Amino acid sequence: MKQTKVIIVGASHGGHQLILELLSRYGEDVDITLFDSGDYVSFMSCGMELYLEDQVTDINDVRNFRPADFPQTNVHIYNNHEVKAINADTKTITVKSIFENKMNDYEYDKLILSSGVIPNSLPVPGTELDNVFLMRGYNWAKKIKDKLEDPEVKKVAVIGAGYIGIEAAVAFRKSGKEVTILDIIDRPLGTYLDKEMTDILEKHLKEKGINVVTGTKISAFLGDEKVNVIKTEKEEISVDLVIQAAGVKANTEWLKGTVKLDEHEWILTNEYLQTSLPDVYAIGDATLAYSIPARAKIPLALATVARREARYIAQHLFEKMPSKPFGGIVGSSALSVFDYHFATSGLNSLTAKKVGINVHSVYYEDMLRPQYVPEHHGNTKVFVQLFFDPITHQILGGAVLSTYDITAQGNVIALAIQQKMTIEDLAEADFFFQPGFNRQWNVLNLAAQRALSEEIFTE
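and the corresponding structure tokens:
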């Protein structure tokens, strides 16, 4: 039997999951070739903070897989190979071997794009100066680690107060550096959490010695060879190192004029994750993913999204007409900010507004455990926020925050959103009780009961 040639572009989460799924489902009936432009296959940038804080076994372990993990003769993994073009009329792709500087064409029966995103570099003067870094990928991780341990680097500025920026700021502050974090929006983590929770985290950042500058725009990086000043609209800030963590953009420049993209250059796919070209699919960060709570396609650069999309494609890759559309995702994430830990899932006030969905919310504060357990025995304060449809009461989002790690509650919220549960469902959902861990009513029960204006049980 002739093998079906499947080519994958991109070796991160989506590419890795595709190999696993294709081998599991089709075995030797598929010939799998994966191309990645980097020299290090599948570095997990989401593990960078753990590496910077010496919480991993080795930097070379911070990866999804090694090529050697797939010794099968029908799997071919090529790094340092940049895909330059798709030739849909001949069902080939043109690939540049970076080291050999040669171009070759490769035939495909099915082509799956998982090309990911690249970090934004601010469009201001001075980004080419030494010690102006981006925070993504294996090589940048090693450079940043060196600077983390460099005694000559005393003042660090981080541009961007999202997840990556906060991780960088925390890591450098823990290493004893003077840290300033800057963002154009009015509060740190404002894309992910509503103001009630960001106020808590902003105060905590300042208590830990981080200078938080929000609502500011960078106009230039200044210095002779190395950066030594950040110029904003309002002030000049002395620095020895700058970390740019100001968002990402789709890695799709090479697809212009070939595959349909939207105005922001995200790859457009249909409900079956098919692109505008026959037998060409796209998954992961470079696409718009269907969000269950948003009821629309939105950019969601999450490993969990790419892996679920990869699983779907492998299930339906050889159906003439897929038996069902991709079911969509929720979009969940978590982060530690010094002593605090939070998880968030689905929509919040900001993201709901962006997609034109009206939401009501409830914000609830309480203690983790019964009142008879004192704080010094682990009875910490917890904060919960839920977002729901004001008419149907369907849960559309939520977040939890505490100095105790309750991030697993974020998975409960995610499941509630995915299963389209209502506030009423969550108000009486059956969870375990044990006073060493929680309350007779779980804090999610209590938050939902508060949303329904019920009298809250205390104990």
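(Above: one complete record from the training split.) The chain has ten helices and 25 strands.
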